[in-house]
Amino acid sequence: MIVIENITKIYQTRRGSVTALDGVRLEINDGEFVAVQGPSGSGKTTLLMTIAAMLRPSRGHVIIDGHKLYQMSVGKRARFRAREIGFVFQMFHLIPYLTVIDNVLLAAGVTADKNPTARAMELLNVLGLRDRAQHKPSALSAGEKQRTAIARALLNNPTLLLADEPTGNLDPANADVVLNHLSAFHKHGGTVILATHSRRAEQLVDRTVHLQNGVIGNSAGCSPSN
Ligand SMILES: Nc1ncnc2c1ncn2[C@@H]1O[C@H](COP(=O)(O)OP(=O)(O)OP(=O)(O)O)[C@@H](O)[C@H]1O
Ligand SMILES: [Mg+2]
């Protein structure tokens, strides 16, 4: 279970401080599929990054299965992240000079999977990318890039998958393919937290959480003001 305990994140910039999250409390059960919605700048990416053990909050705790993420040493947190958490970024974040299979295998460096190449090929197969394994990202469509990013996120068999607007750059057909893969991960027992504006995603998830100015609002559907 994930407990987000009163998280505040203040970014310090040269022009002053920006409060991106302001006392967020949230509990997410194992195996839950949660959508995070909210306008641009409401704090969705910041929230996902703090849950992903990638961004230390200014105040509060993120506790996953009893582990307080930001009380771990840097090394322990990195290993925990590699083992337990997959992250799909909006802009794919693929390395342009590596092939598809090598981009997927990037995630293998930190864990002890005996045959990461076989696992990577199995994922590429499931994601419809078997024929693209030796291509560079520049030769891929946007949908193929995002499926490569999903394969990378799933390589280490994470228990938690975070996806930050993974369909934002995709046409509806490719967006559906990506959402279906997230849904399949969820159906196999994984926990998914998805930042999205997608209406279709709302039909797939167990629960939608609304963020506004770094604060969690009414989670019982769309508020009339947005
Ligand atoms: N590194 C940073 N330094 C300073 N301010 C930041 C930084 N990252 C985000 N912010 C600010 O924090 C607030 C929340 O940003 P965040 O990226 O979490 O929003 P978001 O909901 O993901 O927006 P979008 O839908 O546009 O992706 C915004 O006001 C943003 O300008
Ligand atoms: Mg964002």
Q: What characteristics describe this protein?
A:
226 residues, alpha/beta, Rossmann fold, six-stranded mixed β-sheet, four-stranded antiparallel β-sheet, 7 helices, 27% strand, binds adenosine-5'-triphosphate, binds magnesium ion
Average per-residue pLDDT, rounded, comes to 91
Sheet-strand content, in percent, reads 25-35%
CATH superfamily annotation: P-loop containing nucleotide triphosphate hydrolases
- Alpha-beta content class: alpha/beta
Total helical segments:
7
* Distance separating the two termini: 30 Å
Characterize the biggest β-sheet.
6 strands, mixed
- Architecture, according to CATH? 3-Layer(aba) Sandwich
Please describe what this structure looks like.
With 226 residues, the protein is of the alpha/beta class. It has a single domain, classed as 3-Layer(aba) Sandwich (Rossmann fold). The protein contains seven helices and ten strands. It has helices spanning 44-51, 74-84, 100-105, 116-126, 142-154, 172-187, 199-204; strands at residues 2-13, 16-28, 33-37, 59-64, 67-68, 85-88, 160-164, 191-195, 207-212, 215-216. The strands form two sheets. It has a six-stranded mixed sheet, sandwiched between helices. The longest helix has 16 residues, at 172-187. It is globular and about 45 Å long. Bound molecules: adenosine-5'-triphosphate and magnesium ion. Magnesium ion is lined by residues 44-45, 164. The site of magnesium ion has 3 residues, from α1.
